[in-house]
Write a structure and sequence with these properties.
Layout lengths: L1 E5 L6 H11 L6 E4 L11 H13 L3 E4 L7 H9 L3 E2 L3 E5 L2 E6 L18 H14 L8 E5 L20 H10 L3 E3 L8 E5 L2 E5 L7 E7 L5 E7 L2
Parallel strand pairs: 1-2, 2-3, 3-4, 6-7, 7-8, 8-10
Antiparallel strand pairs: 1-11, 5-6, 9-10, 11-12
Length: 230
């Protein structure tokens, strides 16, 4: 399985067009977007989603987990162009089970009618909904996609140096041990880390030309790589 991991596009659809052209000779099987396709002004989601729709037309499975600036309109438009929106839900692609949990700590998440800043307690409620709905302990080949990164990792450090990720998401990883976790939100913390045997990948903001390609081989080995359009 080859996965294209994206996050924080923020309306920069031309970067997505460049990426599509760059990868068109060898497109990934799966595109996972860890939130914030929408520009900060609230617009730009349509052109981004139309471009993501071209990935789907070319045979890629495309899954989008909403970020803190992705509102209801963006989510409904994603569904219209055939992109699966995943929040507090589980889906299966091939032999891989994918869980999505949207929203960003410290910012509003209007897609869920939460017009206030989310706290880690809010994310814990999202996590609890997922864990009460599905028998996750019985699943192998689990992949987690969230907008918010896990706490105390290389991918949740802000410019000032503090860790601002989610303890609830970290606890989920420690408990259910997914093979891979894709996140975003903290633009300055592009990188790869591990919690136990779980690879944590923040591909960096595509709005700045960053993305990741992750290969999972036939033995379940995860091989993540960070890339740039330049």
């Amino acid at each position: 399985m080859e996965i294209l991991a994206l996050s924080d596009i923020h309306g920069k659809y031309r970067a997505l067009e460049v990426l599509l052209k760059k990868l068109e000779s060898r497109l990934p099987e799966l595109v996972l977007i860890a939130g914030d396709i929408t520009a900060y002004s609230g617009y730009g989601y349509d052109k981004v989603l139309n471009t993501l729709g071209r990935f789907k037309e070319l045979g890629c499975e495309v899954i989008f987990v909403p970020g803190n600036v992705d509102d209801k309109v963006a989510i409904e438009y994603a569904k219209e162009v055939g992109i699966k929106v995943l929040h507090k839900e589980l889906t299966k692609v091939g032999k891989y089970y994918i869980i999505g949990i949207g929203g960003g700590i410290g910012f509003s998440f209007p897609a869920q009618n939460i017009f206030r800043s989310l706290t880690d307690n809010d994310l814990e409620k999202f996590v609890n909904e997922v864990t009460s709905r599905y028998d996750l302990a019985s699943l192998e080949s689990l992949i987690l996609v969230t907008h918010t990164p896990p706490y105390n990792t290389k991918v949740d450090i802000i410019y000032e140096g503090g860790h601002v990720g989610s303890k609830a998401i970290r606890k989920f990883i420690e408990t259910y041990k997914p093979i891979l976790h894709i996140c975003g939100h903290i633009h300055e913390s592009r990188g790869i880390d591990k919690i136990g045997n779980t690879y944590i990948v923040n591909p960096g903001p595509l709005m700045r030309g960053y993305y990741s390609v992750i290969n999972i081989d036939e033995y379940g080995n995860v091989i993540p790589r960070l890339h740039s359009l330049t």
